[in-house]
Design a protein that fits this description.
It is globular, with a radius of gyration of 14 Å. The chain has one domain. The chain has 116 residues and is mainly beta. It is 9% helix and 50% strand. The strands form 2 sheets. Strands 2, 3, 4, 5, 6, 8, 9 and 10 form an 8-stranded antiparallel β-sheet that branches. A two-stranded antiparallel ribbon has the order 1-7. The protein starts with 9 loop residues before the first helix and ends with a strand. Strand 8 and strand 9 form a beta hairpin.
C-alpha cells in the first residue's frame, strides 16, 4: 500500500500552511501590490478588492499585459486551496477570462503598500 504524503491530507495541509510565510489578501489595502517571484516567473498583483481577491495581474506568459483577475489562493497544485492567501512554497491559483491559471511554486513575495 502506498502512503499518501501528510501535506496531501486536509489536516496536513492546514498544519503546514500555517507555518509557511505568506500574506492574507484581506489583510491588504486597495492598491497594494504583491510582488511574487515563482520558480519560473515574476508576477505583480495590484490589489483592487482585498475582500474578493480582485486584482490586476501582470507577469508570466499568460499575463504579459495587466489583466483583471481573481486571486483564488494558494495550493500545492492539487484540489486543496488555502483561499484568499498567497504563500511561499505554494502555487498561486488565478482565475482570468474564464480560465484557471496555476503558477509554479512561489519562492519569495513582497508587499508594496499603497502611497498614503
Amino acid at each position: 500500500m502506498q502512503r499518501i504524503p501528510r501535506y496531501c491530507s486536509l489536516d496536513g495541509f492546514t498544519e503546514l500552511s500555517t507555518s509557511l510565510e505568506g500574506v492574507a489578501l484581506r489583510s491588504l489595502h486597495q492598491f497594494d501590490t504583491v510582488c511574487v517571484r515563482t520558480i519560473n516567473n515574476t508576477y505583480f498583483l495590484f490589489i483592487l478588492d482585498p475582500e474578493t481577491g480582485k486584482a490586476l495581474v501582470q507577469g508570466g506568459r499568460y499575463f504579459s499585459q495587466p489583466i483583471e483577475a481573481t486571486i483564488s489562493g494558494s495550493t500545492f497544485g492539487g484540489c486543496m486551496l488555502k483561499s484568499g492567501w498567497v504563500g511561499v512554497g505554494l502555487r498561486i491559483e488565478i482565475c482570468a477570462d474564464g480560465q484557471r491559471i496555476v503558477t509554479s511554486p512561489v519562492r519569495t513575495l513582497h508587499v508594496e503598500n499603497r502611497a498614503n
